[in-house]
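Chapter summary example.
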Amino acid sequence: MENIERIEQQLKEQREINEQLVSQLLVQLDQINLIQKELIYIKIHSKNLKYEVLGMAQNKDEVFIPKFRDISETIEDIVVHRKSLARFGDADFGILFQREREGIKYQSLNARLSGRLREVLHSRHPRLLVGIADNYGSLDKYTEVSAYNIRTYMTEPGIRNAHEEVLERDRVYEDAYISRPYVMYKDNNTDGPQKRFEALRRIWANRKIIIVEGCQTRMGIGNDLLEGAEDVKRILAPAINAFDKYEDILKTALAYAEKDTLFLIVLGATASVLAYDLTVLGYQAVDIGQTDIEYEWFLAGKGERVPVPYKFNNEVDGGEYVAEFHDMAYEKQILAVIG
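The structure predicted for these 339 residues follows.
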């Protein structure tokens, strides 16, 4: 009996020792993972460092860093001179370059769309402003998370060279992050985002607008973003692969357009092409991008991307699965649904 008790005690002690060893091993693995992440961060940062440093310097001749106008000037041009805006972010460039990218959930690669995007990017139409994301030089105004994500993208093999090949050195671009006033910026816990949203509201203040959006985008629904617009109507297009229905979308937009109509477009890469074509045809069209989702995140006040259950959102896990939504006022705004 004593032998059995002794053996049981020895087994218990051994189990405790094993548990301590496992616990220590898990701590060590966490430390190793942390070190690996820090090493990756340092590697990415060092690869992008010269562009960030030279982006803050007066003489930038050593590297190509595009020139940008201040967002306030872009808004002034849109409001006062009734100019249109086409925007290019990393997903749009991914389609233009025909490169598969994780996170492009709303549009499959399409050679025709790639060609149209290249056409828009190089357009010199006097009433069209062309925006690209301000990713190329200093990232000082962005949060550490945003800066890291930009560095990760810009240091992917061949990406910076691909951008340099399609961008024009003698051109001044608009900042495509005009549509992202909140999450990315260091000052997202100040009154800075509020001021940026107020500035954007000038675009549609006292205007009759037609929103061309994905069928589950629902811009301005459930918030006061569109407050101040004289009238709001909507054309709903497919949330996924909208460019497959491009001719129908353009034809429908033209069918409802009036001389002073302002089109606000939330349609991924297709938005840039549609803004361009509508501009050429004599209308004002602004690729307004993720402004509404950013506003929802701003209202949530967490300084980060959060799910919005009844709005399509390709930037959070599961954001493509949208809850059912019924609202009489919203449904009255719908002019057409393109299936």
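To summarize the output: The chain has a mean pLDDT of 89.
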